[in-house]
């Protein structure tokens, strides 16, 4: 990392840099190692889907680096590629850093060639130098700079090599004049380029870009350049020249697809460059490590069972390892409730703190160990390169349900949180596929729903079974999602199937630091939410379920309790009082009011309320249950963990129906907002609301009815 | 006419022609699948619904429908 010395805001110069490159070459990671940003990094294509600005100072300069989604070429294939192309033509930046993967130079240079005619200064970062060295690839960067006419700097985002040099080169380029690159085409094309350039020269056409670049862009049919010149007086004369030029080039290549012609031209030039600058020290092995691993992991028959086994193990671990610290956390909050409660004299304040905040927040924090394990699992899936393999394996299966194999990536992200999942659906090219995926993401249970499952699975199944049940819930959710996709595909989102062409990244050992950082950040966010939003929600729920105070009821019970003969009777009466008070509270009234709606699913009013408050955030489901059951159940100290109360108060059938409803009903508020934004119209929100509600209700009802028969 | 779809595992071929429509063709090209490029079939799923190929040092997955659009010859 670079020292972050503060620069004088008045004298400092601002340099704005656009970071461009093909997907998965390490753009985001490069920014992270230049500044102290923590952009999302993952070993699959399409990690970054939105432009992000990172600011830092170096020497006397203010740098703004804009991280852009990876793009294979400037041809707007997917939404996120459109973001990049749009930004590049916006003219809102000074320089381009073109990040290339040194282990895959020829392919990466195809994009570079396109960037070189934009008329912007370019610096090439030859990234992944560490990996290239390991593979025995050596690149002569000085010679390459000379051949291309653009500065090339060897970097490694992983080992932080060449970061200073890259910044120095940016400054140097910023301070110097723009020069044409040395990109050279075949004779026929060069002839036409100079022809068109001389034309522009003759007419003294005034433009920001150089004549040579304009000529190249015109020849390759660049829409923007065309549009710009179209309104100029010289157009009438220029047009016939262009038509002739295109004909000449097409004839020369025996191909009337000018884009393809240029791709071939670039490829020929780049092949020459690569041959000059790249040396492979060791003869590459017949089969790379990645290919060998792929032989097993995407084996035609073993591939899917291996994937299922890995998932099953993850949920098994979630339960087995997660339950150890859970007992401690549970004990801690129990102890905290008792100790803090004992110091507070005022009955109401004590109840607010103990039954409201501690019970509500405790119920959420309790599940941190499970969440951490889930996050580790997702981080590993993202950073090893296995993600794309699963997309490959499942594409055939997904296809049958009308989904795209690449949908797998947003769907998996959805197991962590729906919000980034909705965003990452942008990697799908087609709007219909994308909308379909948006609708299905909700069926992938997000991390915030995990607590509900862990709670109920733990309460109603033996310890050995609970992990399997958890696995079943997730697989079940995914299956329901696929069936829903099929239904939607047959009704709302009819249309042709989109092609599936996807790069499979190399397997990479996940950097421990990176996994650690992602998991800690996400866990910290979960805890922070528990401490702020959930605490506030718990207070609100406590308030709504403790007021209005029903003095009459209290008095009538007070006398009854006084005259009770045995202690046992006293306890029963006290419990009954607490229960009745709760039912008369604001929240109780709401719950009672909506009880008939949920009666066919076997929910008591507390469960109704928990589902409704869960619309704000899914964590609130357990915190509501925590508050409601701890208010209603004050006595009986022995068995007061939420899990025990629930297994006592809720029937098996109701519990199963509850799990199913939580699995499929509307995502939380924040997620719904992002969903609506990504879908592009408010009507989709209402579709989602209607669709999930109907499905949740029906499935809940079926589950309840079937479970009753068991 | 032989297409990539007809190739078996570990078979090495050269691209003759891309029969895809313009957009998909662009995509193929940006992946390095263009005339004269050499491809190798690495793996396919059980019912050959999806194929994994190697172009240069890069691995690409595509569906059988897309593989059928790539005309190839054996090398
Ligand atoms: N060995 C090595 N790995 C790297 C280097 N730079 C990035 N990586 C890895 O490459 C993968 C991709 O990194 P990202 O930074 O997410 O790539 P990106 O270019 O931002 O990708 P998109 O946002 O999808 O376009 C990650 O697994 C990184 O750990 C490097 O210099 N050396
Ligand atoms: Mg990125």
Describe this structure in words.
The complex is a heterodimer of chains A (710) and B (75). Chain A has 710 residues and is an alpha/beta fold. In chain A, 64% of the residues lie in helices and 7% in strands. In chain A, the strands form two sheets. Chain A has a six-stranded mixed β-sheet, with helices on both faces. In chain A, strands 6-8 form a two-stranded antiparallel ribbon. The radius of gyration of chain A is 31 Å and the shape is elongated. The two termini of chain A are 62 Å apart. Chain B has helices spanning 22-30, 64-67; strands spanning 12-18, 38-44, 50-55, 58-63, 70-74. Chain B has one domain: Roll (SH3 type barrels). With 75 residues, chain B is an alpha+beta fold. Chain B is globular and about 30 Å long. A five-stranded antiparallel β-sheet of chain B has the order 4-3-2-1-5. The interface between A and B is large, with 42 and 36 residues. The structure holds guanosine-5'-triphosphate and magnesium ion. Magnesium ion (MG) binds next to helix 1 of chain A.
Beta-strand share of residues of chain A: 5-15%
How widely separated are the two ends of chain A?
62 Å
Percent range of helical residues of chain A: 55-70%
CATH architecture of chain B: Roll
How would a textbook summarize the main sheet of chain A? 6 strands, mixed
- Helix run count of chain A: 32
Largest sheet of chain B: 5 strands, antiparallel
Q: Taking strands numbered 1, 2, ... along the chain, how are they ordered across the largest sheet of chain A?
A: 2-3-1-4-5-7
Report, as a whole number of angstroms, the end-to-end distance of chain B: 15 Å
What gross morphology of chain A would you assign? elongated
Domain count of chain A: the total is 3
Radius of gyration of chain B: 11 Å
Which structural category fits the helices and strands of chain B?
alpha+beta
* Low-pLDDT sequence parts of chain A: none
Q: What is the oligomer described by this structure?
A: heterodimer
């Amino acid at each position: 990392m670079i020292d972050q010395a503060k620069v004088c805001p008045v004298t400092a110069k601002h340099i704005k840099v656009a970071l461009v490159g093909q997907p998965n070459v390490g753009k985001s990671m490069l920014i992270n190692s230049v500044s102290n940003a923590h952009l999302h990094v993952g070993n699959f294509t399409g990690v970054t889907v939105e432009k992000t600005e990172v600011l830092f100072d170096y020497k006397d300069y203010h740098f703004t680096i804009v991280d852009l989604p990876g793009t294979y070429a400037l041809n707007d294939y997917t939404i996120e590629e459109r973001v990049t192309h749009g930004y590049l033509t916006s003219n809102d930046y000074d320089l381009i850093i073109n990040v290339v993967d040194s282990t895959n130079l020829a392919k990466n240079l195809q994009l570079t060639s396109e960037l070189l005619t934009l008329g912007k200064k370019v610096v090439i970062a030859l990234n992944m130098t560490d990996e290239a060295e390991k593979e025995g690839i050596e690149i002569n960067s000085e010679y390459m700079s000379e051949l291309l006419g653009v500065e090339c700097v060897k970097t490694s985002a992983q080992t932080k090599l060449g970061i200073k040099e890259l910044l120095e080169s940016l400054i140097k380029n910023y301070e110097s004049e723009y020069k044409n690159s040395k990109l050279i085409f075949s004779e026929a094309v060069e002839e036409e380029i100079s022809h068109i350039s001389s034309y522009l020269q003759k007419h003294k056409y005034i433009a920001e870009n150089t004549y040579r670049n304009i000529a190249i862009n015109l020849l390759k049919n660049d829409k923007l350049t065309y549009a710009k010149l179209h309104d100029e007086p010289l157009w009438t004369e220029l047009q016939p020249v262009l038509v002739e030029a295109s004909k000449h080039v097409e004839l020369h290549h025996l191909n009337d697809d000018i884009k393809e012609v240029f791709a071939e031209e670039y490829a020929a030039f780049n092949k020459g460059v690569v041959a000059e600058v790249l040396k492979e020290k060791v003869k590459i092995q017949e089969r790379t490590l990645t290919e060998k691993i792929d032989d097993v992991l995407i084996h035609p028959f073993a591939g899917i069972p291996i994937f299922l086994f890995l998932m099953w193990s993850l949920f098994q671990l979630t339960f087995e390892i997660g339950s150890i610290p859970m007992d401690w956390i549970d004990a801690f909050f129990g102890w905290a409730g008792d100790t803090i409660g004992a110091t507070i004299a005022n009955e109401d304040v004590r109840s607010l703190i103990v039954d409201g905040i501690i019970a509500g927040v405790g119920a959420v924090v309790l599940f941190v160990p499970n969440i951490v394990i889930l996050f580790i699992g997702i981080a590993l899936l993202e950073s090893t390169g296995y993600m794309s393999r699963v997309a490959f394996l499942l594409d055939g299966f997904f296809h049958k349900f009308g989904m795209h194999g690449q949908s797998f990536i947003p769907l998996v992200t959805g197991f962590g949180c729906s919000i980034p999942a909705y965003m990452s659906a942008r990697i799908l090219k087609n709007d219909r596929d994308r909308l379909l995926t948006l609708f299905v993401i909700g069926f992938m249970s997000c991390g915030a729903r995990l607590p509900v499952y862990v709670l109920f699975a733990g309460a109603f199944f033996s310890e050995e079974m609970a992990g399997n049940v958890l696995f079943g819930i997730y697989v079940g959710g995914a299956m329901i999602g696929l069936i829903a996709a099929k239904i939607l595909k047959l009704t709302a989102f009819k249309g042709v199937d989109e092609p599936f062409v996807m790069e499979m990244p190399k397997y990479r050992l996940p950097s421990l630091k990176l996994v650690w950082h992602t998991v800690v950040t996400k866990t910290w966010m979960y805890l922070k939410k528990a401490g702020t939003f959930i605490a506030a929600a718990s207070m609100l729920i406590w308030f709504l379920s403790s007021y209005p105070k029903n003095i009459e009821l209290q008095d009538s019970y007070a006398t009854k309790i006084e005259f009770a003969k045995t202690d046992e009777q006293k306890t029963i009466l006290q419990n009954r009082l607490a229960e009745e008070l709760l039912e008369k509270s604001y929240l109780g009234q709401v719950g009672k009011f909506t009880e008939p709606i949920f009666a066919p699913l076997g929910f008591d009013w507390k469960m109704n309320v928990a589902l409704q408050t869960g619309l704000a955030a899914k964590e609130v489901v357990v915190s509501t249950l925590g508050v409601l059951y701890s208010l209603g159940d004050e006595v009986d100290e022995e068995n007061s963990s939420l899990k025990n109360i629930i297994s006592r108060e809720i029937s098996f059938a109701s519990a199963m129906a509850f799990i199913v409803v939580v699995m499929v009903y509307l995502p939380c508020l924040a997620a719904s907002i992002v969903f609506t934004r990504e879908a592009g119209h408010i009507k989709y929100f209402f579709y989602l609301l209607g669709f999930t509600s109907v499905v949740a209700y029906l499935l809940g009802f079926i589950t309840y009815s079937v479970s009753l028969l068991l | 006419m032989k297409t990539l779809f007809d190739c078996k595992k570990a078979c090495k071929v050269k691209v003759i022609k891309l029969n895809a429509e313009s957009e998909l063709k662009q995509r193929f090209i940006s992946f390095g699948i263009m005339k004269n490029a050499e491809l190798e079939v690495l793996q396919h799923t059980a019912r050959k619904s999806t194929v994994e190929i190697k172009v240069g040092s890069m691995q690409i997955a595509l569906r059988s429908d897309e593989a059928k659009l790539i005309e190839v010859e054996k090398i």
